[in-house]
Amino acid sequence: MNRLLRFFWLAGAFALSATAQTTTTPAFPFTYYVHDTTGTTADYPLPSIYQFTATPLGNSTHVVLKAVNTSSAAAFMGGVYVAASATTTTVNSNFTVTGLASSISVPAGGSLLFQVNFSPTSTGVISAYLDTTYQVQTSGCSFTSTDPTTQCPSGINVGAALDGTATTPQLVLSYTTSGGTSTLLQANTSAPLNFGNVSTSASTTITFTLSNQSSISLSVPSITVPAPTTYSSNPFALNATQVPATLAAGASANFTVTFAPGQTGVVTTAIDVGTNTYPIQGAGIVVADIDALQISYVDSTGVQTLPQAATPINFGQLVAGTGGTASLIFTVSNPGTSYNAVSVSALTVSGAAYSLSGLTGASAFPASIAPGSSIVFTVTFTPSVTGTSTGSLAIGARTFSLTGVAVTSPLPSFSVIVNPSPLSSDQPNATVSVQLASAAALSLTGTLSISFAPSVANVTTDPTVFFVDHSSLTVPISIAAGSQMATYTNSAGTAQTAIGFQTGATAGTITFTVTFPNTPAYTQSFSITPSIVQVTSATAVVQTSQSLLITVNGYDNTYSAGNLNFTFYNTSGTAYPAISYNAASIFQSNFFSSSNTAAGMFMLQATFPVTGDITQIGSVAVSIANSVGQNNQTLTITQ
Amino acid sequence: MKLVPSLLLMSLAALCLQGQVNSPKVGTARYPDGSFHNVQGLPANMIVADLPLDSAQAASFSDSGGLIAQDGVIRLLTPGFAVLAEFSAGEQPLVSIDGDLTSALAWLPAAHTLLHWNGAKFETFAISEADLEGTVTDLQSAGAKQARLLVRHSDNTVSGVTVSLRTGNLVSSEPLPGVRGYAFGQGLFVVYAVEKELVVDNLNGYRRSLPFEASDFVAERMSNTWLHLYSPSLRQSWALHLTQADLQLSRLPGLAIATAKGGIK
Q1: Cα A632–A637–A639 angle (5° rounding)?
Q2: Out of A75, A362, A487, B262, which could bridge A29 as a Cys pair, Cβ 3.0 to 4.6 Å?
Q3: Tens digits of per-residue pLDDT, A240-294?
């Protein structure tokens, strides 16, 4: 009866059914197990006496319990608490139960997890009891009914004894109020330390002190303030730069946490000192009109972030020297629910690496943003040097820090090797390779591009310069970790380091560009020098008894061929008078025709009507001159 | 682009010059996906342009026209790619044209029949299996009213078989010493591959060779003096310029990835 009275005191919802329940107390439906959240060890039944590990004063240890409804009916867990003794309802303040919502219905076979924390406030052995209030569903009763006739039978279970030993305090955390009072913080408490209501234009800072209350030097565990799970930006900023790696016996160190909300609303997180968690909370509120503005930005991938003033807006990492930039598009909105236009006195960006552009919604400042309206602008990060570049963005009184990093390339320097070298026009079997100065530390995939800049006046390109495999100007290449050579996988699926390309038929410069992620583009150029006309094949053929055809295939990479000279010889080697002709206009018409896709390549066909005995003509010397010099060919007449 | 004529008087001959300058022509290539492309340029520096022709399973081109096989139908083409005549072969033929249109020949392996365009119509000649044992790898005209076939035998040796285009009778059959495997004829030359070399035998006994990375290839004529060589294993194409005075092999530019359909027909 005593237990029932205690239960009704704890769970007022069941108080009215006290009399009715005295004779129908159901069996405790739950079985408790000790649960390892890492899954390393299997659950095991909670022993009748559970011993917490020795816990220094100011620290906390915990056990995760799994409650399994081992009855055949649905059960209702009204609450779990740790009582000071087996016969009292007084809660032992050295223990807390977290992670368990009150009043939970658990089906037969179902289970739930919760955590029992031991956070001693005084040294010595501390004992307590794990108590559970519950109901069991029978005959269509209701867990939530307040009518004794339909209410499910209830009970209270005094479970395992919990023993903890509080040892001499070691590292303890305290904070100092504005009045100078130092207050010890309990780890893993459910009551967060409240930073209070703070304007979105302002911030508040609390100084925390980590003290070593032991008699030996202790290592300081990591101190972090994780971002709230629902926020991508953290409104709490930790500054623990003054905390040493170790604290001598009796020593202490200070760190600060600043709550600087960029958005309105309540936000909760924690200060984690090693395994100890100290919940903290704050609320961003509107004090001045400008605090009501909703600020967000979108990155290049379309991800939207609501910035918090405590956390710098991060532009990410770029490679210095690549000319690369990172931009974020900001939107500053006056919520439609507001009834005041909000005046923004100024919009400024500071920091050499940051610039402001693309402002819409306002033409000048101060600017007024009407309810439901917004302004949009872009902040761009353009690093010129390696390292971290900081800056700030001020939207009236709302300020945000900016940060971005410029790094050097992860790859060693490149060189581009062509074979043969030097290159010439119409070069047979020309290949290009990409070599690193040393072995690559990581595998990367990039591209190799080829471009051509003619040195011939009025010529803009040479369409015959490309990589042979797919007549393309760019090919994918890759570098394997540990390798110094880039490879290209050809049409047959074979990786090759020498990549075939055509050198064209125009004087100029071939440039190769190597591009890998996070690496400055590397370019290397190779000259194709102007040369005399090159003849790749030529024939002199008797077409008829009165006609002779000379065909010359070749190229003129200067596009300046002009003077032709033909000297015929009879079969005895005696020369006839030479025939000269300036064919510059004919060559120019071909080279500069809009339909010409063969660059400086040409096929010259010259027909010579012959009067007399054509069989007496034995050979012909052909010369073609351009701006560099003259090519001479001697052709035997094919009768 | 006519050159202004210039008259030259000589003791026995008078020459006057007429001429023109154009882009150097290579020919018409059928790529492994069956598509046709106009090839211009010089050895080692070529450019490939698409042609508006339906894809084919076999093709041969000379400076005077082309002979192609599309889904069992053999079509004779003018230099402008107009269809001059058709023949329904009903099978996958081997086609060849190496000069004027009357050099157009086709070998129908299942029917064991030779097809010839005589200038007016296609005429057929059934060839006795006893006269021609093996696989025909190429055929070409051989002077007036004769066709010369290269036949690969089961022991990998190759014979040159001459057939009369008047009677269809065998004129001669001669083993080609040293020629083995797949062989392709080009005028008086026979082209084949041996141990990383492309070998060109002249029927007069003169032999030339070039380094050649493929161990396998098939060939089709692109024009009178240019052959298109393709290696199925390497998936690469080459252009071979083959004349009495010239032998040059160079990579034929591959099709852009967006254009190439891949595969081997």
Answers
A1: 165
A2: A75
A3: 999 999 999 889 999 999 999 988 889 999 999 988 899 999 999 988 888 989 9
Distance from C-alpha of A536 to C-alpha of A428, rounded to nearest angstrom = 12
Q: What's the rounded mean pLDDT across residues A587-608?
A: 92
User: In this complex, which of B8, B21, B250 lies closest to A579 when CB atoms are compared?
Assistant: B8
Q: What is the pLDDT of residue B258?
A: 55
Residues of chain A contacting residue B253, judged by C-beta atoms under 8 Å apart = 466, 468, 470-471, 502
Query: How far does B188 lie from chain A, in Å, by closest CA?
Result: 16
- Give whole-number Cα distances, A457 to A183, A440, B64, B242, in Å: 83, 42, 38, 35
Mean pLDDT value of segment A364-372: 92
CB within 8 Å: A586 and B241: no
Q: A500, B251: Cβ pair inside 8 Å? A: yes
Residue B82 in tokens: 């107009």
Q: What CA–CA distance (Å, rounded) separates A565 from A152?
A: 118
CA distance A422 to B75: 47
Q: What distance in Å separates the CA atoms of residue B34 and residue B92, rounded to the nearest whole number?
A: 14
| Maximum Cα interatomic distance, chain B, rounded to a whole number of Å | 62
Contacting residues of B for A604, CB less than 8 Å apart: 19-21
Strand partners, A379: A328, A356
Domains detected in chain A: 2-167 (2.60.40.10), 171-285 (2.60.40.10), 289-407 (2.60.40.10), 414-528 (2.60.40), 534-638 (2.60.40.4070)
Chosen from A423, A502, A580 to mutate, greatest number of chain B CBs within 10 A: A502
- For chain A, how many helices (H) and strands (E)? 3, 49
Contact check, Cβ <8 Å, B42/A601: yes
Give bridge partners of residue A79 from the DSSP assignment. Answer: A133
Which positions in chain A touch B14 (Cβ < 8 Å)? Answer: 609-612
> Exposed (0-12), middle (13-18) or buried (19+): which is B92, by Cβ within 10 Å?
middle
Pick the closest to residue A262 from A196, A192, A337, A312 (CA basis): A312
Does A603 contact B46 at a Cβ distance shorter than 8 Å? no
Beta pairing class for A579-582 and A630-638: unpaired
**Partner-chain residue, chosen from B15, B48, B250, that has the shortest CB–CB distance to A579:** B15
Of A425, A494, A601, the CB nearest to B23: A601
Domains and CATH numbers, chain B: 26-251 (2.120.10.30)
For chain A, the average pLDDT equals: 88
Does an H or E element contain A586, and which? helix A584-591
E-strand ranges in A193-275 read 193-199, 204-212, 218-219, 223-224, 236-239, 246-247, 252-259, 265-273
**Interface A:B, Cβ pairs < 8 A:** 175
Percentage above 70 pLDDT, chain B: 89
pLDDT value at A438 more than 70 = yes
Q: Do A470 and B235 touch (CB under 8 A)?
A: no
Hey, are the CB atoms on A608 and B15 less than 8 Å from each other? Answer: yes
Tens digit of each residue's pLDDT (9 = 90 or more) over A302-321: 888 889 889 999 998 887 76
Residue B4 pLDDT more than 60?
no
Q: Confidence class of residue B14 from pLDDT cuts 50, 70 and 90?
A: very low
Nearest to B44 among A427, A579, A602 (CB): A427
DSSP summary character for residue A413:
P
pLDDT one-digit tens code per residue, B139-155: 999 977 899 999 999 99
Here the ipTM equals 0.87
Per-residue pLDDT tens digits for B103-140:
999 999 999 999 999 999 999 999 988 888 899 999 99
Pairwise CA distance, residues A397 & A380, whole Å: 21
